[in-house]
Amino acid sequence: MASMLLTSLRSSPLTSVQAAQFGKASQVSTSLFLHQIYLAEIILCVFALSVFVIRYANLMPHDLARAALQGLLNRTGLPKDAVDYIVYGTVIQEVKTSNVAREAALGAGFSDKTPAHTVTMACISSNQAMTTAVGLIAAGQCDAVVAGGVEFMSDVPIRHSRKMRKTMLSLNKAKTLGARLSLLGSIRLAHLAPELPAVAEFSTAETMGHSADRLAAAFGVSRLEQDEFALRSHMLAKKAQDSGLLSDVISFKVPGKDIVSKDNGIRPSTMEQMAKLKPAFIKPHGTVTAANSSFLTDGASAVLIMSEEKALAMGYKPKAYLRDFVYVSQDPKDQLLLGPTYATPKVLEKSGLTLNDIDVFEFHEAFAGQIMANLKAMESDWFAQTYMGRKTKVGAPPMEKFNTWGGSLSLGHPFAATGCRLVTTVAHRLQKEGGQYGLVAACAAGGQGHAMVIEAYPQ
């Protein structure tokens, strides 16, 4: 049994189309059901900066997801009825389209006979969508699955306060005029205050930015180091964009407005300008700022995953193999963002590889301080022995192989779509640089994490 990931698309401010293919190599003993599962093609709808964005204000999440799906179909020429299943990830759900996978699929013109469901796992939601697709193929349930993710931060759900909601529900059930008037009379001005989506961890009541600031301090990551890494991300992303390397991005036509044709969060600055920004979370002495944090982003992604037999029969050439993947979780209070440190050695051991075997690394950049803290944790024997039960350190990726086309700090981070972008970038970099193995790693809310090993398909 063999499977292949054929195509994927991503969108945020609406960006690009990426192609990548997954498959397991010959180590059947490690992961029998992942043998020869491929990523064939990837599409990314441009990632758009979402802070006070009026450009997308009249859209809904399924609009971006639909654009990514349509871009995938256009890029591959894939018959709509050739897809057996669709899986999408999302984090902040629009209540009208809670199963956004199904609504986007119908809007994109897929057969109404094609099942679709939506998953959520914070910032690794599209990773979960992809590995769910792999599982469906590995189990022999499907031959072709489209997976992806979408996030729409320009119109997040804003609710009435809990007291106001309870009053309104009680009003709906009140049977007499007197009861209704009594309930209306109980409303106070404070009850009218809106309730914004939670930005803090439910279990700890701490925001991710505050946690990133504490993590950076714990590992001795300076403000200067964070700003330097953030500037590196923007400079590399700008270079990649100008060189035409971000070929996975598709343009998006905003109804009645302009066309967004490229990721618009890339903003190379200077160290002097970045140094002027004040701490965003721990004031006045924190080190995490708007400049060294990923920004709110709109975007969507879509990838086509197929069995090898199906893909080759339809004339598709895979982009990469999926070698293996793992999910991890740890203490959400003090190790919220250390998922890559825990997941990287596990996925390497599972796939029978070492850090030196990896040619391309793509880690999700939630915060510059988070990235630098993970790299320092991976280089620490003490951390490995104290918290990971390992005799020696994991070892940090060499920077010449690390996020060399930019990352979430510069390209943007539409929560549920980022995983597909990471995989897409690895697949393209392996092709461009002639490498064999790539590794994706990401942290996620709740103290969770993910890592995946990808192998280039022979060209």
TrEMBL record:
<dbReference type="GO" id="GO:0050633">
    <property type="term" value="F:acetyl-CoA C-myristoyltransferase activity"/>
</dbReference>
<comment type="similarity">
    <text>Belongs to the thiolase-like superfamily. Thiolase family.</text>
</comment>
<keyword id="KW-0007">Acetylation</keyword>
<dbReference type="InterPro" id="IPR020613">
    <property type="entry name" value="Thiolase_CS"/>
</dbReference>
<dbReference type="GO" id="GO:0005741">
    <property type="term" value="C:mitochondrial outer membrane"/>
</dbReference>
<feature type="transmembrane region" description="Helical">
    <location>
        <begin position="35"/>
        <end position="57"/>
    </location>
</feature>
<dbReference type="GO" id="GO:0016507">
    <property type="term" value="C:mitochondrial fatty acid beta-oxidation multienzyme complex"/>
</dbReference>
<keyword id="KW-0472">Membrane</keyword>
<keyword id="KW-0999">Mitochondrion inner membrane</keyword>
<feature type="domain" description="Thiolase N-terminal">
    <location>
        <begin position="56"/>
        <end position="309"/>
    </location>
</feature>
<dbReference type="InterPro" id="IPR020615">
    <property type="entry name" value="Thiolase_acyl_enz_int_AS"/>
</dbReference>
<keyword id="KW-1133">Transmembrane helix</keyword>
<keyword id="KW-1000">Mitochondrion outer membrane</keyword>
<protein>
    <recommendedName>
        <fullName>Trifunctional enzyme subunit beta, mitochondrial</fullName>
        <ecNumber>2.3.1.155</ecNumber>
        <ecNumber>2.3.1.16</ecNumber>
    </recommendedName>
</protein>
<keyword id="KW-0496">Mitochondrion</keyword>
<dbReference type="InterPro" id="IPR020616">
    <property type="entry name" value="Thiolase_N"/>
</dbReference>
<keyword id="KW-0276">Fatty acid metabolism</keyword>
<feature type="domain" description="Thiolase C-terminal">
    <location>
        <begin position="316"/>
        <end position="455"/>
    </location>
</feature>
<dbReference type="InterPro" id="IPR002155">
    <property type="entry name" value="Thiolase"/>
</dbReference>
<dbReference type="Pfam" id="PF02803">
    <property type="entry name" value="Thiolase_C"/>
</dbReference>
<comment type="subunit">
    <text>Heterotetramer of 2 alpha/HADHA and 2 beta/HADHB subunits; forms the mitochondrial trifunctional enzyme. Also purified as higher order heterooligomers including a 4 alpha/HADHA and 4 beta/HADHB heterooligomer which physiological significance remains unclear. The mitochondrial trifunctional enzyme interacts with MTLN. Interacts with RSAD2/viperin.</text>
</comment>
<dbReference type="InterPro" id="IPR016039">
    <property type="entry name" value="Thiolase-like"/>
</dbReference>
<keyword id="KW-0812">Transmembrane</keyword>
<dbReference type="GO" id="GO:0005743">
    <property type="term" value="C:mitochondrial inner membrane"/>
</dbReference>
<dbReference type="Pfam" id="PF00108">
    <property type="entry name" value="Thiolase_N"/>
</dbReference>
<dbReference type="GO" id="GO:0006635">
    <property type="term" value="P:fatty acid beta-oxidation"/>
</dbReference>
<comment type="pathway">
    <text>Lipid metabolism; fatty acid beta-oxidation.</text>
</comment>
<dbReference type="InterPro" id="IPR020610">
    <property type="entry name" value="Thiolase_AS"/>
</dbReference>
<comment type="function">
    <text>Mitochondrial trifunctional enzyme catalyzes the last three of the four reactions of the mitochondrial beta-oxidation pathway. The mitochondrial beta-oxidation pathway is the major energy-producing process in tissues and is performed through four consecutive reactions breaking down fatty acids into acetyl-CoA. Among the enzymes involved in this pathway, the trifunctional enzyme exhibits specificity for long-chain fatty acids.</text>
</comment>
<keyword id="KW-0256">Endoplasmic reticulum</keyword>
<dbReference type="InterPro" id="IPR020617">
    <property type="entry name" value="Thiolase_C"/>
</dbReference>
<keyword id="KW-0808">Transferase</keyword>
<keyword id="KW-0443">Lipid metabolism</keyword>
<keyword id="KW-0809">Transit peptide</keyword>
<dbReference type="GO" id="GO:0003988">
    <property type="term" value="F:acetyl-CoA C-acyltransferase activity"/>
</dbReference>
<keyword id="KW-0012">Acyltransferase</keyword>
<dbReference type="GO" id="GO:0005783">
    <property type="term" value="C:endoplasmic reticulum"/>
</dbReference>
